[in-house]
Design a protein that fits this description.
alpha/beta; two-stranded parallel ribbon; globular; Endonuclease, Chain A; PLD-like_dom; Cardiolipin synthetase; cardiolipin synthase activity; 8-stranded mixed β-sheet; PLipase_D/transphosphatidylase
Amino acid sequence: MDQGVVVTVPSGPYSQREANLYLLLQAINDAQHSITITTPYFVPNEVLSAALLNAAYRGVSVTLIVPEKADSAMVSWAGRRHYHDLLEAGVRILTYHGGLLHTKSIAIDGEYAVFGTVNFDNRSLHLNFEMMLLIFDTSFLQALKKLHEQYETQCNPIDAKNWQKRPIYGKIERGSRLSASSPAVRLNGLL
């Protein structure tokens, strides 16, 4: 019987270290072959965005699965402003249309996964009490891979060329400074 290992990684606003941020960065930077991220809220800070771009430019196959329609237009806009650079780097962005997507997971090279309550945004990384699990378990990894494959059958890929051709109002979001890392947005409780 396969004995897996699970490491808990809690974090919150009173934590001395940004454990979940470091865990996400380490996972992305460790990847040699593949990264599959599933998150309902994708608003990476500059460090996480740079890590994803670096992984893609290193030749790692990076797939991002996000909801086609989010429950917050502001969060969607803030996240989509990253799509141009990610698509240019070769990241595959898939929008899930099969209902509510609330899974928060990262699979790395089919060797381990990060799974838990943390969204890919600064609110989760710095303001909320969150729990991540670092999972080394073959059975879990196989089940997560099947889940990702199931999600992909209910996704629409974002094509880089079509993304460039979207209407001007769609391009405004890229130029906007709206970000979950903005203190004004955080303090006003909008995200």
